[in-house]
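hey so u asked for the seq, here:
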Amino acid sequence: MSAFVADDAKREDERAALLRAVEAGAAEALTLAHWMAEHPELSLEERETSRRYVAYLEARRFAVERAAAGMPSAFVARRGAPGAPLRVALLAEMDALPDIGHACGHNLSGPASLLAAHALADVVPESALELLVVGCPAEEIGVGKRRLVERGVFAGVDAAMMAHASSMRRAHRLFLGNHKLELVYHGRASHAAAAPERGINALDGVIALFVGIGLLRQQLPAGVRVHGIVSDGGKAPNVIPERAAARIWVRALDADVLAQSVARVLHCAEGAATSTGTRLEVQVDEGSSPPMRPNLALADTYRRQLARLGLEESAEGPGEAIGSSDITHVSRVVPTIHPNFPIGAGLELHTREFAAATVRPSGDAGLLEAARALALCVLELVRDDSTRRAVARDAHL
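ran it, structure tokens below
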């Protein structure tokens, strides 16, 4: 491997070498993506996917720590000098959805990160970059990256990134914070026909909750989302339910707005309990997540790579058509981006149509686009001090 150089002409040569390395590794990454589509594994059950990710990385001389943060399918793969001037983490998601498989496209985003890591390991000297590939399970239930952050996996990392399949191409994408509540109402059972007056109907508490939330929505700030389901409505029509429950999710882009909105939803829940004589139990789901903390300098770095590849961004802004993800936990401790790459027009996440698109030629093209752009983005961070400083500054604004 030639010595790392900063000369402009040789930088261009290095970019070209990086893109050639992506092409050389494309077939194996695409094979892995298609295998994942045919063998979807659910959150925290991604054993074979994880095994194949690890085998891919070990073949490229990454040292792998398995079962990271106590999750059997999580891992941290490292290559490069621990004292290198830059440490970057590429995130590799792996889980699928029940019944509809890889309808979120993790079979593309995970292998794209692996392919980018392959190219970087082939081209960038180990003395210049310590590269981590973090196997991230359970994105769909929102716990994987949270546990990895809590265990300190991202300590000392200068930047973290991955790219996600979409109908759009965006260098900068935001995520709503998501506070997940389980609101359980406790009453007293009785025979619904013979002695209804002796019962306290827990389901009445849930129904009053939904009425209260419906009225509250008009007074919530723009952009706040509140939605939920009845998760327990009782056991039989002729028994006054002694227990009933609802799962309510509250989302917002601003952390303070989110906290205030959650408080108001809880006031509705408490009022429902008071008015129905039931007892309220509040449970907060581990899969809750904060809003995304953006790093615009890092997003701009990715954007420059799209321009180098001759790719134009879609018209949609970073806050349009967004949901939530556990990557927001990473963004709170490390400069982080989560750009989109397109795999087809008019697609919606979490649908069978999206899952089918991941194995079409457009899905293959999207995976390769993501790998190229991620690899080039890391390369710019490696060689450009001003870019690194801008990313670090943005992290402290």
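Confidence is low (pLDDT under 50) at residues 1-5. The two ends are 39 Å apart (CA to CA).
lmk if thats what u needed
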